[in-house]
Amino acid sequence: MLFTTLRPFVLILCLAVALGFAVPAHAAVKNVDGVKAYLVKTVTKMDKASHDFVKSAKAYAAIIDAYQGDYAKAYAAKKKEIDALVKDMQEEYKTMDSYGYETVEGIIGGVDAFTHYDRDLDAGVPKTEGAENVAEITLTLRDGKKIDQQGCLFTYIIEPTLWGGEKRWIVPMDLNGDGKIAPRESLPKAEVMLAAADDVSKRIDALLADAKAWKPTDADCIAAMIAMTPTLSDYFEDWKESRYSAKQSGRFFAVSRVSDMRGIMGSCGIMYLAVDPSVAEKDPALAKSIQKGFEGINTFLDKIDVREKDGSVTLAEIDEMAAQAKEHTDKLVPQIEQAKALVEKN
Amino acid sequence: MRAKLLIVSTLLACVCAGRADVLDETADTQTALDDLALSAVGKHWNIQTAAPPLSALGQFSSQLQSPEAKALWTKDLAELNSAGDSPGAAAAVGKLEGTLQQVLALEMLAAWQSGNLEATREWRASIKLPKHASAVEGLLALQRIGGAADQRAEVARMLARETLVWQGSRARERADDLLRLAKADRATPELVALRASEINALTQFPPALLSAAKVPGQPAAIPVPADTEEAIAQWKLTLESQLPDLLTADDVDRQERLVVKLLRLVPMEYRAGVRDGQIVVPLEYREAVSFTVQAEQILVELRPNWLKTKGEALKKYGADLENGLATLEETIASKGDILIIDKTCKDLSALLQDRFGISLRKAGKGSDVVQETALEIRSLLSQSLQAAHAGNWRQANDLRLEAYTTFDLEIEARVLPRDPDLATRAERSFLDGSAAGPGIKAALDQRAKGEVLDNTYARTLKALDESVALLRVGLSPTTVSITAFTIVLREGLEAVVILAALLAGLRGPENAASRRQVGLGAWAAIAVSAITFILARTVIQSLSRYGETLEAVISILAVIILLIVTNWVFHKFYWTGWNARLRELKDKAATQRGQQWESLAMCGVGFLTIYREGFETTLFMQSLILEGGFTASLIGLFAGLAVIGLAGWAIFTWGMKLPYRKLLVWTGVLVVTILATFLGSTVRLFQTIGWMPIHPIRGLEIPTWMGTWLGIYPSWEGLVIPLLGFAYVGGAWLFVRWQGLRKQAAFEAMVQSRRESPRPTANTGA
What we know:
Chain A is mainly alpha-helical and 346 residues long. Chain A is 72% helix and 3% strand. Chains A and B meet through helix 1, helix 4, helix 7, helix 10 and helix 11 of A and helix 1, helix 2, helix 6, helix 7 and helix 8 of B.
């Protein structure tokens, strides 16, 4: 009863906090060097998490190995340790991806020098899904078997393995002891975790080195915004798929895709702040409109988040939200192209 | 719950807005409409919970200045206020969503017509855009033309037309989306009411907007369809067929060719820009992206016309076209396989040529060639960049020159009168560059690599884009005449001034023959210029390609002739002013030879001084006539000729009144100045066509007018060689003086010796 009464106010508070926090995070960026600083800071956090992830994966594998690969025996004997390690790996994954990578994906996916990281870490698909944008990821497991071009590390390998979404790489297990094994109730295969952790940490090391060496330009940021802003619509489709489609995809369990959308649009917004002074100097109205466009998308995503947490959204509402999301980005892309025309100097 | 959220979001929007202006108010209005749409679609419509957003919508009318906009908004808002249930509310919200875009466009036009540039920009920036909106040209027109009164109507037309294209395109996209929902059995009555009403309102363009865009007619309102796939499909077809067709037959022809050309260029650019899924030349990659988007934008613009003229093909293959372009866009975005891009582009080209009957063969009157020319220049520059990256410097420079000559005659000539700074900046980006970085020629001479090279080409492409954007705004006849006038004045004044001064210097019956020869040369040059003009229009269209080279040859001849004239002036000055007696002592044969050379030189100076400028003027006039029409160009041409004729006459008259010696000094100074100018501009031409390297002087900024009028450009060659000209003139003067003094001394010695020698006596021999 109390919760029901307070819920509107909690939601109001969430929305206000989301709106309030959106500004200071962006306000620090005043030029392209600010974008680089933000990127390096975020990737440094990801890098630390990736090395913690390697340690957790090794510790987890050591327990499983101690029981000769018998997951049931290992879980029966070391339930607390295994639960804690799986939880640690999940949190490290979230730090790497949902709270790390996704908040800089607009930059990594959009800046030409980094796009291969986006393909291999977050966006690349398995070769079975077509010839385009196939992740160049081949993991060699310790038994010599290979996971060859089965998609990018975050979306297709690590997350589905940690959250039980990919049958090939998990061991179904009754974790809560209710005598039944629910659809995603499982433990990740240790060899998959080891190989994935090793690979992801090396890639993030390389990404960090490249981020530090990056010499950002206005053109980099603008091209990245033009490339990444329209992806909001794709993310919306993923969100629908992961949350509301009758046939779930097995992906995006870690956090809602709305969080990813907020991250990616946030990083586009940050890049825009870097070029905003140059645009505002020549066309204040356009500059303000683009800023408002990014803010509007964030506000819109916050509202969706609130509605999602509220529980019931009809299909018709989802379709209308998808259309509204597309309208937001559709307007922003040509506006950024206009900003590009103003900013580029002879 | 939702009601509270609605209130909260509206309140927050208001709180967060800060200083409310057009953009804030429009954003709040849009947010309120989006919330109401969700409420109606989710079947939670309740007039009480809708009160805060409705109030926000009511407040928006206080921002409106245009009576037509205000009336439109108030009427449709009243409909929403009286909506009783969710489907009714959905229809009213949808209608208001569409109306909002019309209202914004009307306000933009009203602000523009009242001369308020900032307000125009604010209203324009508030309008919703489709993904592939072509909006840069309008932006740059506002940026460059600003409040220029003579271009106001043309810019208004451009702004109105772009909003018609945007909203027509949005209407079509939203109708497609609605049809997809219907096919997926997800088109609820509320969704259909919302979307169809919005789309209808988007296509109900207000008369003021259509009138500003110079588009006749008004699409009829179509009733909202039932929520079945068939009904929606039928409604969509009817609606699309009513969208205004903004293109003339020539526009259609040109745009169709352009889209096929773009599809040919995309794989070339992509191949050069991407290897093994990695971007190796960002500029080339960006060009591939840009050309794809441009192709998509053109198809959007062509669609209303095709619905009328190629309806069957569009019905059968329209989806294939859209899917092909979507595949192309996705493959490029993911840096996919070039083979897919190649195949997609070939398929699309084949589709356009075989099914839509598009031919690459140029037809029509050939006007408005700017966009096509720009594409050609881009393609040449792209090939030049590829050649430079491969280390083929000579080929890179040849391609640069070809791009430059195309730019010079087709685009720079048009830009120059409208925005001289842009024209100069663009031209310099092909050559020495500016403070922002080296020009292409300089970069190629320095064998620049990597990012420096890419950025150099990018600057030129940017200047090209700006120029094209500027030229997209049509020219009024007055502007055409002024442009022609400016061209004639700029090109002709220098030549006429020097000729008038020379003729004044050649006064007296003893110079009648020389005057005749200068006149003969000048008249011959005018005749040859006229012949060039006719030939360039009819027989040798490709002459323009060699324009710079021919001009360089003429210029070097002009420099030689001027050197002869300079020499002659000094001799004349010395002979006439200092020692007239020497004339009596001239060797007869030598004098005859000298007179022959003098005649040729006089004739040559008349011819080359005029033809050097006349040749370029005829080519510039060709472009102008194509763009602005014959009559207006001719008026400007004759006005320009009249003014320079007057200037020539004034100088001649003034010169005749000067004492002869003083006039010769003036003529000498003028000739030397012109010689230095010729040398400077000839060096520039040599550098342009690649006959001479260019070494820019970094940090040295020389005003544009000094280049135009004095031939001074900021490169070492451009500054040193004219100085050498001065050195030659000084040396020649000293030499003549020394020679004269020597002869004078010899003469005086001879006179003296004759005086001193005893008179011969009578023959005494018998």
